[in-house]
Fold these 2 entries.
Entry 1:
Amino acid sequence: MASNFPGSERQGHPLLHVQKLSKHYVRGREWGKSMAVTAVCDVDFEIRAGQTLALVGASGAGKSTVARCVARLERPDSGEIWLDGTDIARLNSRDLLPIRSNIQMIFQDAETSMNPRFSAAEVIEEPLQIQGASRSERRDIATAVMREVGLPAEWLKRPVLEFSGGQQQRLAIARALSTRPKMLVLDEALSSLDLSTQAQIANLLLDLQSAHSMAYLLISHDLTLVARMADVLSVMSDGRIVEMGATQQVIADPKHAQTQRLLASARAAESKFDLASGASA
Amino acid sequence: MSYLGRRLIRAAFLLVGVSILCFLFTEMAPGSFFDEMRLNPQISPETISSLRSRYGLDQSLVVRYGRWLRSALHADFGYSIAYNAPVAPLLWSRAKNTLLLATTGMLLTWLVSIPLGVWAAARSGRMLDKSVRVASSLLVSIPEVVIAVALLAIVVRWRVLPVGGMTSMDDEGLSQWARLQEIASRMLLPTIILTLGESAIIVRHLRASVLEVLDTPFVQAARGLGIGRMRLLFRHVLPVAASPAISLLGFSLAGLLSGSLLVEVICGWPGLGPLILDATLSRDFYLVIGGIMLSALFMVGGNLVADIMLLACDPRIRTGALDAR
């Protein structure tokens, strides 16, 4: 199965290339007067295979909208999203279907991101079923990805609700892995976990990334985590990317006022942690 | 299966409670079956009091309740003075017709409400949703009697359907199939009246809970996986959104029964409705109590069915997650 994944020879090739992405929301349409709210404006970035790009910023900066557009839960108003050679920004849902297996999203709250009525097997196998995999194929892949995320394969029959919070996040990752994606969008995927579970899941994600050279788009407000996981750090403010660079460099020498503010508040909140040494770990 | 066991015990207690209240309230109600006889100068007071003692009406309330309980255990449920017969067979011959009406109404209600509620929620804010919302709030707010009388007037005026009774007078020579058609055509109006009022409520509830579930992250996640609209709605959203609607099912079954009593009287359907109405007007004590007990039984039974369905499709009840809250 590992053969599905291009190895490090494609390290230099941008897997995801986002150009001039913009998205507005219309508010208050029911009441006659409508108001357009700009969530994301002219965002550009690219992520290479095996690389992690982190989007940080205050809440309301537009990070999640970018994530939702890239995973095509939303249709962007304008701009291009090139994923592995296809512009997915304008595709309709039928044309998107085969592409969905290449890009998967992991949500903040694993418990609510899975159907509470489903068993682990149903959760993991559903994307495969949508993609038209046979029954035995699905069973094999489900067993394989359960092992990969460190859950016993016997638990496949268990209902989702019987898993603990950390196990549910592993299960959500297993679901994302089932279609062998080239890219994962992690929308605050580690934020709702306690610190030790968070560290375990972060390690798991890093291991999976190096095993399959997946690209990660990491949405987070936790700079310690970002420093540990991300190769490239971009800072968003009011729907725009205001600063972008190698993570170490940005943290060591923040140029934009918003970046400095985020770093200062992160340092104040976690004064015991040294961001720079956390990054080198 | 302690959950069901508890429900059953509770249902039994409920029925005993209802029967006690029934006796208390009918005792408090003014008048008795023999009041009209008392006005008749040709009947002597002695005759009346001997009749009273023959039916045991001169005994104290506790004694009468005890006797009724014994008779209930023998499945007679007391004795009707007006019909001079045990209550249970009287009720049963009519209850069949009521049940036929109510269950048909129920099936039709769910057949209409589930697709309509889900569809309205899936297209919330669009034309269809808006018209469903307006129509359902109209139907909820107009009393069922008014809807029934209005529809009856329309049907009678334009002679669209035969109304009144279950079959026509001269049904002896009819074949089985023609009889069935006759019953179906006479059932149509009461069923439609019942369905209209009941589905308005269920459509509104279902729409609200589907909308809520459509907004949850797992549905968003499922969309992100590329799951199509139909599969999303019926495999993911509906099972989760159905829980509140299923609890409503118990009430709606009870509501359909009590509603059908009214509709039966209006449309002349030979069910429990006209029987209980007559019994109440003539103070036929045990028949009234029997009728109330039967509708209480239907209500409790309906809720029990809803509980079993919930148990089957809500894992939180099975795992006890709701009890832990």
Entry 2:
Amino acid sequence: MMRFGNIIIISFLLLLFILTSAFGEQVVAIRAGHILTISDNPIENGIVLIKNGKIEALGRNVVLPEDVRLIDANDKFVMPGLIDAQSQLFVMDSELNESRTIAPELNILDAIDPFIKEYREVLAQGVTAVCVAPGSRGLIGGRSAVLKLNGSKNIDRMVLKADATVKAAVGVSANNESASLTRLGHYSAIREALIATKVYMQRKEKADREMAEYNRKKAEYEKKDSGTAAEKKEKPKRPARFRSSPSSDVLAQVLSKEIPLQVEAHRVTDILNVLRLADEFGFNLILDKCTEGYLVADEIARRKIPVIVGPVSTSFVDMPRLEYRNHSMSNAAILSQKGVKAALGVSGRDGASSKFITLAAAMAAANGMDINAALRAITLTPAEMFGVADRIGSLQAGKDADVVIMNRHPLDARTQVEMVMIGGRVVFERKSQQ
Amino acid sequence: MKKTILLSVLILVSLPCYMVRAADAPQNLAIRAGRIWTVTDGVIEDGVIIIKNGKIQTVRKKPDIPAEIEVLDFSDKDVIPGLIDAHCHLGLSLDIFGEIDETVSAVTPDMQIIDAFSPLADGVKRALSSGVTTVLLAPGNKNPIAGQTAVVKLYGQKAKDRVLKRTAGVKFSLRDEALMSDRRPTSRSGLLALIREELGNAKAYQDDKPDLRMKVLKSVVDANFPVYISAYTVDEITSALTLVDEYDLNAVLVGAEQGDEIAGLIAERNIPVIYSPLLLFSRDKDLKRVVRLAENGVKVAFSSSAPETALSDLRTSSITAVKYGLDKETALKSLTINAAEILGVSKRIGSIRRGKDADLVILNGDPLQPTSTVEMVIINGNIVYQRQKI
């Protein structure tokens, strides 16, 4: 009987919780000293008004409703939640890789562990969304996803966008051995898969056409049911069933530009190879890591290919790797100065690394990247790349209220995050005594 | 045969020429700086440093600059002493995966690490560009008694300019890596027993028959020759303290990741710590450890252990420590004067002061901000690195 009582109490508390979270404190206003909107100019001494989890309005002259809950951040910086475009958060190390395979049908969402505790530390540094992608050992490793750090243990609620990209990798040495021939193999294996997909798409289109034709004829035939016996002989023959393949279906989405292909490439040769692939097949390419990109920045800029640069410093990598031999801390700066759209990722060894995204941006700025470009590279730029800029990435009316309040400029070494909101809900608040 | 000899002689002769980028003789220079972080004598705003014969001659607010001296104008920039990486393996192996330990025997105190140092190695240039001018070279952690460390500058043609200490102490390792299945020691207590046995033998050793190993270890137990003890966990550090007490060793702890747990015991023995690199995937509680260690009165220096880890940027460790609560003054000291004192070279380097070597780093902002970068590095008055405009 005791247990029954407990259940009632728990359900009552749950109900109370749901009610308060659904109906309580719907309207929140942040009065801020500096609002870094990212999409527009910064606003000094303004207000961010949040309603039903979305940004309702922002600016210097926002009229406050009567029952508004006011958050005072008069001497503080307010900016959109940060995004790590190269995160491993929520994913166990071993689940990032399926060795040397063409496996676009794999989905990183199947390897997500929402119970990982490190996410709290990442959230406490202002990161509200991460893009998690399969690792670099698979040639085509599978599909990535954009997740929110909203504390939900239900993966469906964490997902902002599934199938954000299909991740591929060329020229990444599995065991740090220099292997030029293997790299040629990577390139041709991916090319072969794309050619096969083209054929698959044509076959599928033909099959669809035949099926439509059959359906039309069948309907005609059945209409003629009352017709003569001679006509009846022409009963249409059902075409052979088309066997669809999950793997080719995903690559077909890449070739029809529904999903971008995110290709990790480090060295100049590999980067150029990938650019040739994009030229040949015309998919939407996102270059990932792009360690030596600064050496061929013009080639990348000319094709308007976006790049996720990371790691900004080899400090983020725990072991030396051959791919980073010509690593330059100025990579992001040079690419963005040449007009390449560059996002920054931490690309750390571990999920917890994502908490250093502002350090990565600061280092890029130290090495010549414009400070505003560096801030954009950890907010709006990745949001645009992953097709979620209508929801996150900047402080704009209508977007999700994913907001970070900091006590100093985000790139200062001593900056402390005071508060983090996701969808208008406070998910982190700094203890005052710390 | 003769040809090959001739060729190798040619190569050997031309090699040092290839190394030299700056002028051969140290230049006389004056540096006008927005801020001079002297480390030991505060910050001087709008000051000038005059360098003569590779040494710092004057550091002052408005000195008279002799007419014949070239003036470098950095009046909107910051100048700090050259950074010191207090424990690394730079330039010690042919490639980044090469071996730095002599693992055939577990006890190799006679091995001098400087014999393996190549100033042309890849990592050296990288370290220079991040503002590191002096390093402690050390063997790895695979031998309980590993070999002798050295303090060298990353530039200098003549040995007397480059090498501050050919031998700076003996490296001990109490870490798991020192245990191997195919030779002694294979267990933790075996490791301590082996070190005790060697130190005991050294105590009893008379100079009657020449034994290089014993000679080195005798200087450890009898003549206060420093030992650099690599220990990370609480139990490894406790073992290190036990050895220090038993043999009255002049010790420096290397690594000491969990040292904060017994910071009091380390502080009361006045043992300094060369802290392991702050890895950028560690948990928050681990990143705060070095802060607690310093707050409890332990003298701390930073290290990169490069190239074992890819942490070529020593400054990143201190910036991260600042982020996790270390005060900026201690952080800067840890990169400079603390390290110089721990390595026993503070008479020559570690702060900007009259008479010290002209090892300077010029940055475009606060040295402990991640948004600042190194613009120029000077060693012994030579400009050895200059940032390229992009």
